[in-house]
Known about the structure:
Strand order of the largest sheet: 6-5-4-3-2-1-7-8
Number of strands: 8
Helix content: 25-40%
CATH topology: TIM Barrel
Distance between the termini: 28 Å
Bound molecules: iron/sulfur cluster
Structural class: alpha/beta
Amino acid sequence: MNRAMENLNALLTIPAFKSMIKDEELRCTSGSLEVMQINVGKRCNLACKHCHVEAGPSRTEVMGKEVMEAVLQVCREQQVPTIDITGGAPEMNPHFEWLVEEACSICSHVIVRTNLVILTERKYRHLPQFYAEHQVEVVCSLPYYRAKEMDRVRGDGTFDKAISVIQELNELGYGKKPELVLNMVYNPAGAYFPPAQSAMEREYKEKLREDYGIVFNQLFTITNNPTGRFAGFLMRSGNLQSYMEKLYGAFNSATLPGLMCRYQMSVGYDGTVYDCDFNQAAGLPVLSEKKIFDFVGKKYNKREICFGKHCYGCTAGQGSSCGGATE
Ligand code: SF4
Ligand code: SF4
């Protein structure tokens, strides 16, 4: 665990997360690996205020081809049905397109998480077409459906750029053709919980259609996890303890069976394996083998999940994961 997270865990006067899970089975991964999440690096064109992976233009950490090959090998061996590529801005990894093509040759469900704004830069203008040709599921983060709120989190002008890219994706058939899935992610701009996912999805769909003619498939609402830059914001603003108490108070045991860490593996740029992207941000690798190379050529076994107090971010209310609410 990194130093910031150690401090956070020691300071907080709420019970250890693991003590909330009475069923031993739910403290472990399920027997099958459903999603391989590949975090290809911390480089990003943006530096959002609440980024849990603390990505930005000055970050230099990117996944090399050797690590990618090992991840793909594990995906082949375990017949992983979903490969989920994320970052930073994953498009900025120099091997990104190669990775997408290889992933598409292994499974039929490949997800790319994009901040959209990167796709307006000249070097990446061809990627919407590339995504459509490979029938990649695009999951785009759009912090809000109005410019003012989004620009406050992501920077001036980011909303208009994102909207122009979504319109382009719609023109290519995204959100319209069944094979071109376009999903969006919403997370709150501060220390509060997201609204109910279904209500927020209706609101986004209505506003984006009326104002910009945009259509999309699903909206995922994600609770801000107290890791990375968001944890820093909570500490600086004096909101950490109250936010954590709110998460703890909203603990919902019905979300436990669907926790994303039970079905996935998350690999960092240097090949370190984590139970999820939040653990990656917290510097908490898996409790068993630590590197993806150790998983090559091996039978996939259940493993005990590495929990910390930030995990309350996944079990509050309707639950939260990279795929939205879990209950
Ligand atoms: S939140 Fe996403 S777009 Fe913003 S800095 Fe982090 S990785 Fe980049
Ligand atoms: S933060 Fe990760 S390990 Fe913790 S409950 Fe959420 S998905 Fe599981």
